[in-house]
Hints:
Blueprint: H1 48-52, H2 57-63, H3 68-80, H4 87-100, H5 104-114, H6 121-130, H7 136-148
Helix pairs in contact: 2-3, 3-5, 4-6
Amino acid sequence: MSPHGVISEDSLPEGKGKEGKGKERKGEEQTPAQPASNPVQARPEKPAAVAADRFDAADFLIEHGADRQTAADFLTLRRGKKAASTATAMRAIVREAGKSGMGLQDALTLCCAKGWAGFEAGWVGQQARAGPRQTTNDQRKATLDELTGRNRHAADKPNPRDITAEVIRIA
């Protein structure tokens, strides 16, 4: 065997240009580490009661009158829209459902059908009052029919307007 092939402590390979930070060879004197000026303290553990007080939106909605499937569907819809299901948000939905006169179940069903992540009582009232929408063409036709006397029904309009060229006397 050749003496060059034997590995000894003196022939240990060197690192990649670093001065051996933290690594010391055998036989070298080690200096004791200085104690830290501020000792590291572990964070206090959270009490089990605090960890158990997590808000469960599904249970909250079920307690206030929603069925399990509707609550799950509504919360899935909210998650899809990246809307947090916090206690404050769920309380607001329950409150608005009460204002609208609908039960929570009906309000959540409407939200799921319309794709709403929230609910306001005013939204329901506006829909009921609006009625079917008329196109501009339908509105013009209805106005012309009323002015020209077409589609007059005696039961519907007891005093039809007459727009003939006669002189109209104002009393």
